[in-house]
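Q: What does the assembled structure look like for these inputs?
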Amino acid sequence: MWQGRVKISVNEEVAPGYFRMVLNAPQVAEDAEAGQFIHIRVNDEYDPLLRRPLSIHRIISRRLKVKSLKLPDIEVLYEVVGKGTKILAGKRPGEDLDILGPLGNGFKLGCVSGTVILIAGGMGVAPLLALAEEIRREEKVKDTYVIIGARTKALVLCEDAFRDLAAKEVQVATDDGSRGYKGLATDLLQELFSTLNLKLSTTVYACGPEGMLREVAALTVAKGVPCRMSLENRMGCGVGACLGCVVRVKSLQSGVESYKRVCKDGPVFEAGEIIWE
Amino acid sequence: MWQGRVKISVNEEVAPGYFRMVLNAPQVAEDAEAGQFIHIRVNDEYDPLLRRPLSIHRIISRRLKVKSLKLPDIEVLYEVVGKGTKILAGKRPGEDLDILGPLGNGFKLGCVSGTVILIAGGMGVAPLLALAEEIRREEKVKDTYVIIGARTKALVLCEDAFRDLAAKEVQVATDDGSRGYKGLATDLLQELFSTLNLKLSTTVYACGPEGMLREVAALTVAKGVPCRMSLENRMGCGVGACLGCVVRVKSLQSGVESYKRVCKDGPVFEAGEIIWE
Amino acid sequence: MKSEPNISVDIAGIKMRCPVMVASGTFGYGEEYADLLDLSRLGALVAKGITLNPRQGNPPPRIVETPAGMLNAIGWENVGLQVFLEEKLPFLKRFNTPLIVNVCGKKEEEYVQIAERLDDREGVAGLELNISCPNVRSGGLSFGREAGATQKLVAGVRRVTKLPLIVKLSPNVTDIVSIGRAAQDAGADGLSLINTLVGIAVDIKTKRPKLTNITGGLSGPAIKPVALRSVWEVAGKVDLPIIGMGGIMTGEDAVEFLLAGATAVAVGTANFVNPHAALDVAEGIREYLEENKIQDVNSLREYGKKW
Amino acid sequence: MKSEPNISVDIAGIKMRCPVMVASGTFGYGEEYADLLDLSRLGALVAKGITLNPRQGNPPPRIVETPAGMLNAIGWENVGLQVFLEEKLPFLKRFNTPLIVNVCGKKEEEYVQIAERLDDREGVAGLELNISCPNVRSGGLSFGREAGATQKLVAGVRRVTKLPLIVKLSPNVTDIVSIGRAAQDAGADGLSLINTLVGIAVDIKTKRPKLTNITGGLSGPAIKPVALRSVWEVAGKVDLPIIGMGGIMTGEDAVEFLLAGATAVAVGTANFVNPHAALDVAEGIREYLEENKIQDVNSLREYGKKW
Ligand SMILES: Cc1cc2nc3c(=O)[nH]c(=O)nc-3n(C[C@H](O)[C@H](O)[C@H](O)COP(=O)(O)OP(=O)(O)OC[C@H]3O[C@@H](n4cnc5c(N)ncnc54)[C@H](O)[C@@H]3O)c2cc1C
Ligand SMILES: Cc1cc2nc3c(=O)[nH]c(=O)nc-3n(C[C@H](O)[C@H](O)[C@H](O)COP(=O)(O)OP(=O)(O)OC[C@H]3O[C@@H](n4cnc5c(N)ncnc54)[C@H](O)[C@@H]3O)c2cc1C
Ligand SMILES: Cc1cc2nc3c(=O)[nH]c(=O)nc-3n(C[C@H](O)[C@H](O)[C@H](O)COP(=O)(O)O)c2cc1C
Ligand SMILES: Cc1cc2nc3c(=O)[nH]c(=O)nc-3n(C[C@H](O)[C@H](O)[C@H](O)COP(=O)(O)O)c2cc1C
Ligand code: FES
Ligand code: FES
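A:
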């Protein structure tokens, strides 16, 4: 966990209202895992007051001029939804940004093997691309399927990037049918489930809007397929101290209900443990 | 009085910590007089909350491409002293700024004639340059003297601009003696007074830090020389509604004491009417 | 939606074309803003607080900016009742906008005298009793911080006026509901809330308060959560129409107050930041109603009762 | 200046190397921040409020951002006294930093029992009675909003503990001085102020409060003026050392509190924005003293008395 000011080297609009930003932050990148996030202070004033959490989208190598050294950088992908992200979008390369991270528990691949399915809704691609990069290094994973859902064609993000990461198949669903399947990403998941032998090791990783995650949780729990999903919640501290970001969970072992902190115990949780309100 | 968003066409550092900004604001420039100010909202968030007042420094002509039309623009000169001016300094040409103006009562040259002395301390040059431009158009003014005081050489602003405006003499005083006279601008004023025939029509216009203005007021009142000076005060509305920016005055006619609003009744006042706390 | 939503409201018998007024002390007597916006489009205009005799107010500095807010200690500078009637009222009468006169005083007597003289005045639509001004102290707390004193004062004024009587509450109390109830019991027709919170800012260079008066009243977005809570608490317990205020900058902010239980809102500090704020807020409310297919702004205040 | 200025202070017998502590509920039990800053450089650490039995707290959403502030309605989620003693205290004892335990309860009985069990505990430097938490209601107002209830509660706890007893005051009252006096009369050794202001934020899309608990406690820079005013009022009238808090983000903010009459300060919401805030604030105070050639931080609190 590190906190300090880092330099922005890229901040560009990649789709209408969606930006990618590269931060020269080797202190954070070195320890970062897929599913973790950084907590960003968007300005020096007190409005907005709190930091904004953004998932680690990619860790990319930057070659330094001197001594052909390489340093890892952090890339984030964000949508402009309110004042904090609007201020971020106005930053220029060369400016500084105060970040804190890496925070949270990532996807924790552990001893994953066999078939892996990544399902992303909208901005949900952000942490899943980092995960896809990690999965590529997992020798026991045979096939990786990627399902991307978006409102419309222009907002389908990272499709090529996932393909480049040697996913077996990248499927796209859009609400308006302007690209790929017309309908929900979860329809595609259901269909995929019907073509796979779920008795063989299969794991699902999901990130996206709450409605989608709820449905993914229902589907995977019903089929007994292990599924880990990344949640979002309003955050205060981001480090587990304020208890502001909790989600209601039921222990898979004991059945005991309690609150867990999205920032520290998550943001990645087992689909089965989440109690949806 | 006009309020709206205007485009920034220039925003550059002219001396360490001092910036000049040009705003494409013909709606304001057309009505503006020397000594008036504009009230600027530096960002869309609520910190800082209030607008920041800056004097009209120059009204400059911009030639439009089409039809060889000309539009007047507003130039302001500002020092970075806190969070509002820091945010201003970070603006890029092409960005918008929400301004309100022109506000206040300017220097009101009226039927000035004979000798005119402008005395500026630090940022005080800002409104006095606009005044010098107006004075140039006054045929009855014979000689214009300019005295500029600053902490050090690098912070002596607009010296050449005043010279170009055909001032008879531009004198400079710096606290550290790095340029011109070593000492206070008011020392130079005192000296100048001793060389002039104050029986002939002489008027002083002043703007600068409170300490300087107090001294200028004392000198001019003692000699019976008419003097108008521009005051600064914390402002709320800028239009005379909140009564937040008042200064204590004593009517030159009736001797009655009351508060006057710097934003609306001023910012320019008769030196003799101000009651210094 | 077929028809435009209704945004007119009635506060204590005062009919307003839109639910947005300008808050007392932040809009002078209207003159200063007349160049910048059409006063006849406001829901109502609440004049700067007046006292029986002219008052010079506190020595400067009188205002200081704070994070997302400001402190003021104007100290009731005003022209006094007589000059108000002679010089300010004629101007304000020109606009077809209800004028609510904000009344201040040190003693009950003062309030009563002002109310008496305003009672039959053409052009005065209602009175707002400022019993909560934190910047003038007359031995201890101001009237509005104690239920008994509130009830007595309001009853005294009620006796001499038939005008709609709005009482403006202070948030600097343990139990704002009890003060609101006291006003209701004494015959008030409506409540305005909130006035400013008492605060201080310190100048660490001079080691003294930034305001000459030491304390000032905190207003602006910083206090919006406290204002919303106050409105919601009172709306649930007191059966009077409420004018909600405190940090309203946008139509969205205003809708929050209306949902919490206010019938109308007032825009204060926002006028300084955006001279067009009151009309922008009104337009924002209208847009909200349209987007949410709500026919009448008066239906919003029912929501808070169900929370 | 020849020598370093003194920045150590003594609050109710608790010796602190610098006048900056972290505020209860904003720093957990220290564990989460231990990676980011050296806990042994803090003046003191105030633990998250504990209750006799574990509490799960309120359903989310529990926090919402407001202009220059935030509302929280955590609702006392905590591990309970037993687990605190077994699992949290051992970690905190490792640092050479006074630990102040923030105590919460619904009934006097609860406070008393917790105080009894903490009295002889190694590693506990003092108690802070949170009698002002706005997020738990037990029939009407919380203890800290009424002088009589405050006095009774503090006296009850005083009877069972020899530990330095700090009482944390609520700003949601008409007269904070009377509550401070009641605490003093009942034997408190120090006062913490302020706790959060009660507020609401409304979601205009759902037409419901943003917090499930409806109301929450407002903290952050937005409330700093109210906090400074409270500290100044109480410091002038009550003869107990004060821990000032509410919106402190920088060393300059802290100096404002010290000038207003506080002996020490606590940093709360700022920890979320800048995890290093408490140490940065301490450093800022030291720099201020040096620049102003002030030898001892303890001399600052005399200024407010002269305003
Ligand atoms: C662990 C984590 C990882 C995230 N990763 C990404 C990412 O990689 N890319 C990305 O674009 N976004 C991500 N988000 C969401 C992102 O943090 C919010 O969109 C951002 O904070 C909004 O800030 P704002 O000031 O622009 O919007 P605001 O003005 O604060 O809010 C605008 C609207 O968005 C809603 N909103 C804002 N933040 C949240 C939130 N955290 N949860 C639910 N609703 C919210 C508000 O209620 C409001 O309606 C992540 C969130 C979390 C918790
Ligand atoms: C009519 C008028 C015309 C002005 N013209 C110019 C100009 O042409 N160029 C220019 O550089 N400045 C001018 N000023 C001053 C300018 O408005 C302030 O410097 C600016 O508002 C500071 O904003 P900030 O947010 O950067 O500083 P803040 O963070 O608000 O304050 C920084 C420091 O400056 C002090 N300060 C800020 N504003 C004022 C003020 N208005 N009066 C006294 N002290 C203040 C504060 O107390 C604080 O110590 C003018 C002021 C007035 C009233
Ligand atoms: C500069 C200023 C002067 C004020 N004067 C008065 C007044 O004379 N009478 C009154 O009842 N309220 C007065 N108020 C309080 C406002 O009417 C309003 O209740 C308060 O500012 C909260 O609203 P806001 O946050 O929108 O400003 C004043 C507020 C400000 C900022
Ligand atoms: C998330 C959060 C949790 C809090 N929990 C407690 C608590 O358990 N006990 C307590 O006495 N105060 C609690 N407080 C209040 C703070 O200790 C402090 O008094 C208040 O936040 C004002 O300081 P600040 O503006 O610096 O945050 C909490 C505040 C926040 C923001
Ligand atoms: S954001 Fe503070 S505990 Fe998660
Ligand atoms: S700033 Fe409002 S009256 Fe001058």
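Residues A 235-238, 240-245, 261-264 surround FE2/S2 (inorganic) cluster (ligand 5) (CB under 6 Å).
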